[in-house]
Design a protein that fits this description.
Blueprint lengths: L1 H31 L2 E2 L13 E2 L2 H16 L8 H20 L4 H18 L18 H21 L6 H19 L3 H21 L8 H22 L16 H8 L1 H16 L12 H7 L4 H21 L5 H29 L10 H28 L1
Antiparallel strand pairs: 1-2
Helix pairs in contact: 1-2, 1-7, 2-3, 2-7, 2-8, 3-4, 3-8, 4-5, 5-8, 5-10, 6-7, 6-8, 6-12, 7-8, 9-12, 9-13, 11-12
């Protein structure tokens, strides 16, 4: 019984730490003028300069709680997980403060993945019959697992485009893994997952709706890395060698269930890569074709789009767990068909807009006047901020 109390403690304590830490980070960001400025990049959705240091609070609360709650006996390779998590966090923080070269980012991500894959032996050893492949060679296992970790890290970073989406999806994924690991009596991994869930929920208090702070690359990279570790361990620990689980503690068709749990970041990333390749563009060049962009184009607010995508994630988890007995390949096909159905609905909306809407007149705007107004507004805001800081200093 003490195990369930420890899991609940890790969830609640990490949430409280984040709730306490985020306001201090917001204040610090305004004092040091560390913002994500939408004027510097045309594709930015938000309209106001917003601090992007939320990942610091998430990592701090998650790491402190997990280290406090997890003993070496329940998670003997925890040191490699936290060492790799700290490395990928620092890479993301560097990218938040000063733009980092993409090649350096991928190199750091690869090193992070190799640490846990090689030293902690967190890797996939089977394809579960997908493409007719079962057990795989260790060399292929190391390479594929490392690439998978890098892919998931970047997939979570790519969905961090609207208020609350990354936090909501991360919360759903972490709670799902935490519940499953608890049922499997893998208490170390359950605490790891629930510590992440609690820290993300505390962050959502300041990020949902009109965001007061963003997660930033530091937070997105850290969450993606921890989730990738949870996903690989979920698949490996549910590996059944020729026996049928009778106690309900093991999950069947685990690769398909894992993909369903991570459906939003995985499907969105694969979708935009395919679209870019079809258009003859590089898959690494950012655009506005993500699922959250498409939902905003339909007239939804950030909150509505986040609720739609989060609900779809929960729906896919429910479908996967309900039909896990049909087999890995069959369940993958079912998940793919449902995901393509959602994508087709967005495509049909685009077609309808082209057919129904009459042609609109293009009105040329006075760009010089717009720039003058924007510069004036920025000067007024900076003057007000300076007065506020001087008043705080006097107090």
């Amino acid at each position: 019984m003490i195990d369930i109390y420890l899991v609940l403690f890790s969830f609640l304590f990490s949430c409280v730490v984040t709730l306490y830490a985020v306001p201090s980070l917001i204040k610090l960001a305004y004092q040091k003028r560390l913002f994500d400025d939408p004027a510097l990049e045309e594709r930015k959705i938000h309209k106001y300069r917003t601090p992007n240091l939320g990942g610091i609070a998430v990592l701090t609360s998650f790491t402190f709680t997990a280290c406090l709650s997890i003993s070496g006996s329940v998670l003997p390779y925890a040191n490699y997980i936290f060492a790799s998590g700290l490395l990928i966090f620092l890479v993301g923080l560097k990218d938040d403060l000063t733009a980092l070269n993409p090649y350096k980012k991928f190199l750091a991500q690869a090193i992070t993945a190799l640490i846990v894959v090689y030293f902690a032996d967190i890797r996939l050893t089977s394809f579960y019959g997908i493409f007719g492949i079962h057990d795989i060679h260790p060399v292929i296992s190391y390479l594929f697992s490392s690439l998978l970790i890098v892919f998931i890290i970047n997939a979570f970073n790519l969905i961090d485009g609207i208020n609350g989406l990354l936090g909501s999806v991360s919360m759903i994924v972490s709670i799902t893994f935490g519940y499953i690991f608890f049922r499997m009596q893998e208490y170390g991994l359950a605490i790891l997952a629930m510590s992440m869930a609690g820290s993300v929920i505390g962050f959502l208090r300041y990020n949902a709706g009109r965001a007061r702070i963003f997660m930033g690359d530091a937070g997105a990279y850290t969450i993606g890395f921890i989730v990738s570790v949870l996903a690989i361990q979920f698949i490996e620990l549910n590996k059944v060698q020729g026996i049928t689980p009778v106690d309900g503690s093991l999950i069947q068709s685990v690769p398909a269930v894992a993909i369903a749990i991570l459906i939003i970041p995985i499907f969105d990333t694969l979708r935009v890569i395919v679209i870019r390749l079809i258009k003859g563009k590089s898959p690494f060049i950012a655009d506005s074709n993500h699922l959250h962009h498409r939902l905003l184009d339909t007239g939804m607010t950030h909150t509505q789009a986040t609720l739609v995508l989060s609900s779809f994630n929960v729906l896919m988890i429910g479908i996967a767990l309900s039909f896990q007995q049909i087999g890995t390949v069959e369940l993958l096909i079912l998940i793919g068909l449902v995901a393509l159905l959602m994508n087709s609905m967005l495509w049909l909306y685009d077609v309808r807009q082209v057919i129904v809407q009459p042609p609109t007149l293009v009105v040329e705007e006075d760009e010089e006047k717009i720039y003058q107004l924007r510069d004036h507004a920025r000067e007024v805001a900076e003057e007000a901020l300076q007065q506020y800081e001087e008043k705080q200093h006097q107090n």
